[in-house]
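Much of what follows relies on a compact textual record of a protein's fold. Think of the row as the fold of the chain written in a discrete alphabet. An example makes this concrete, so a full record is given next.


***
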Amino acid sequence: MKVLDLGLAGKARIWQDEPSYFPRDSRTVFYPVVDEKILTILDNAKIGSIFPRKVMIEILTPLGARFLYGCLGAIFEPNDSGKLILKISISTESERQLNTSLASSLDIVRVGITEEYACSILEGARLKLQESGVSDMFGSGEISFNLGAFGEIGSSKAFFHDLAYAVVEVIVRDKGRFYNIKPPLNKVLEQYY
């Protein structure tokens, strides 16, 4: 896990191809799945250039008297199905509380991706995957958003949309492609790379 101090833009942590544990918490950020949203991004997909990957980003951004918080991760598993599938695993709104998140002193943070954020995550990831050449880089396989945490106060649909876009960006970025990311996530990726 890499910890980033973004100054006035907040704090972030990025996990890449490592266990998804928060500091001082022995449980991963996986959660029980109660429903799924599934979208086929690409039919007749060939083998891509991206190997199995796991990325999770957590960010806390102060905005004057309020703040934004989100934690989101995805796992990419290549396969020979001939399709690129995007899957969002949905939790309940009452999963276990995280006491070691970046926002724990400001918000009640719970593990999971709720129905409220699932469509935004699907759209943010789809937007990134539909950029020129990105889906072909992934090729045949499944991108599963099944790691996450949300704040009861600081999370929003728009923030999870942008966070999903950024997670896919981190998965493909080491392949030499660079895209514009909205603030505050652009500062996260600038410091990370």
